Amino acid sequence: MDRIFTAFASRMSALVGQPLAFVLAFTVVLVWAVSGPLFGFSDTWQLVINTGTTIVTFLMVFLIQNSQNRDAAAMQAKLDELLRAQSKARAQFIGIEHLTDAQIEEIRAALEEETNGRKGKKGKAHDSVDRLLDRY
Question: Which of 29, 56, 67, 135 has its CA 20 to 30 A from that of 36?
C-alpha cells in the first residue's frame, strides 16, 4: 500500500506542478464564471465551484505533504551521510531533526556563539549574516 501511494503521490505531484495543470484549472474556473448568467448566479452554481475546489484542495494537501515528507527525509539522509563522511564533523548532529524546536534553537544558538567566539565577536544570528555580506 505504501509503495502504491508513494508512486501515485509522486506522479500526481509531478502532474499538478506542470503549467498545463494550471491552465486546465484556470479554464474550469473561467467556464464556471462565464456560465454564471446562464444559471442565474444561483446557489447551486456557486456550490459547484465551492465543492469542487474544496475537494481538490483537501486531496492535494495529502499528496503534497507526502511528497514534501519524502523530499525532506531524503535530504536529511544525504546531510547525515555528509556529516558521517567528514572527519571534522560532529556525528552527534546526525538525527537532530527529531529534537524539539526549542532544543534545535539551543544548538543553533550555541553554534553561533561558538563561531562568534572563535572570531572574538559576540552577537546575534543576524550578525553572522552581516559579516558574510560584508565580505562582498
Answer: 56
For 61-89, what is the mean pLDDT? 90
Number of separate domains in the chain: 2
Detail the DSSP E strand segments found in the chain: none
Determine the Cα–Cα distance for residues 35 and 42; give it in Å rounded to an integer. 11
| DSSP tag of 57 | H
Mean pLDDT of the chain: 88
C-alpha cell at 37: 448568467
Calculate the alpha carbon distances from 120 to 48, 110, 115, 116 in Å: 64, 15, 9, 6
Instruction: Assess whether 49 and 19 both reside in one domain.
Output: yes
pLDDT tens figures, 2-26: 899 989 988 998 899 999 999 999 9
- The parent domain of residue 105 ranges over 99-136
Q: Are 94 and 83 in contact (CB under 8 A)?
A: yes
Question: 109 and 83 in one domain?
Answer: no
Residue 93's pLDDT band (cuts 50, 70, 90): confident
Nearest to 13 by CA among 68, 55, 51: 68
